Amino acid sequence: MMKHIFPTYAQYPMEIVSGHDWHLVDNQQKSYLDFTSGIGVCSFGYSNDKIEHSVLNQLGKIWHTSNLYPSQLQDDVANALCPEGMLAFFCNSGTEANEAAFKLARKATGKGKVLAFNNGFHGRTYGSMSLTGNPDIQAGFKPLVPEVQFADYNDPDALSAITDDLAAVILEVIQGEGGVVDGNGDWLKQVAAKCHEQGVLLIIDEVQTGIGRTGKKFAFQNFDLDPDIITCAKALGNGLPIGAMLGKKSLASAFGPGSHGTTFGGNKIALSSAKAVLEQLTPDFLKGVQKKSKAVFDALGKKVLPLSAVDSISGLGLMIGIHLNDSVKVADVISHLQQNGLLTLSAKHNTLRLLPPLVMSEADLLKGIDLITDTLANVDATVESSLI
Ligand SMILES: *Cc1c(COP(=O)(O)O)cnc(C)c1O
């Protein structure tokens, strides 16, 4: 369909042309229940009045001023976003947030080595791609940024790789692109403890798991961890491009004037959206996400897990992985679901990944789970009949 665009993405046949609440409409007027939120971006759905008002209000004032001038809006959003004792650096994406984290960690510690994990995903620019433990993503782009080491996620042996010659360890609390792999809580705590003991900075990549996705503001708060640096992006602007790197105040002197920068980062339009997102991310809202999550995981356990196409289910909050066995291809399941009016995502290892808008009603969440149940049950039946 697109003749003037690099063929970087394998695309579905339809274009999404409008949306409301948590429903999307394509160019053939077919509507879909959305279990994708873009890719974990539009957590407040497609018609959020508070975000719209905040952005429209800012559009009428000023769009861009450069970072040569202070911005009260940046300071307010940083205050709303940062855990106690942290400062923010705003950028435009997840990969940029991780680039900033990588640079800050090296500069602050004076050390070069970083430990990352197999199946982790941190982005596509050179630094963050070099931290991404997926050979398919790195293929053809070598040489990568040197001195990045990898260990197996959730592996107790990885602890021995955390030594005092590392600048940092970077990880996701739940690996998203890597297949919705749940971090083991005890292991995560041991990693954090070893980092602190060895003087190694702990960078937690919350680009996908942050901003309420797991029922907490940040996913690490489910496990009582104490990161030195946090990166976020995706859901922070509900669709406007914004990323942020948050770091402990003790790191401030390594990121002084001239050390790092960005023209668009901290842009007032993107920030006006993030402000309205964070204002709505209240403890009550997060409790609501936890309650809906419980209903969804109950339904998944009762209806989806018993199906012969399904090996296991993972995730937390409204970040969900349904691990399909080899008899079915996740791409086929996704296109069947599209025909049945439900948009879903995949992740590595034949995983059907669900990232519905956090504002979706419990009734529609359960409706989506029923569509998945029916679709996978049909796939099951086809698999069984083809065996006969
Ligand atoms: C999506 C993602 C990124 C990259 O974010 P971009 O905005 O696409 O650059 C980094 N880390 C994680 C965990 C992600 O899910």
From TrEMBL:
Query: Does Transferase count among this protein's keywords?
Result: yes
The protein's required cofactor(s) are namely:
pyridoxal 5'-phosphate
- Domain of life of the organism encoding this protein: Bacteria
Q: What PROSITE patterns does the annotation carry? A: AA_TRANSFER_CLASS_3
Task: Note the Pfam families from the entry.
Answer: Aminotran_3
UniProt pathway annotation: Amino-acid biosynthesis
**UniProtKB keywords:** Amino-acid biosynthesis, Aminotransferase, Pyridoxal phosphate, Transferase
**N-terminal signal peptide:** none
Protein's GO biological process: L-arginine biosynthetic process
Q: Does the keyword S-adenosyl-L-methionine apply?
A: no
Q: Per its record, what are the GO molecular function terms?
A: identical protein binding; pyridoxal phosphate binding; transaminase activity
Query: Which residue ranges run through the membrane?
Result: none
- Gene3D superfamilies in UniProt: Aspartate Aminotransferase, domain 1 (3.90.1150.10), Type I PLP-dependent aspartate aminotransferase-like (Major domain) (3.40.640.10)
Give the UniProt family note.
Belongs to the class-III pyridoxal-phosphate-dependent aminotransferase family.
- Annotated NCBIfam families: argD, PRK02936.1
Protein name listed in UniProt? Acetylornithine aminotransferase
Q: Which gene encodes it?
A: argD
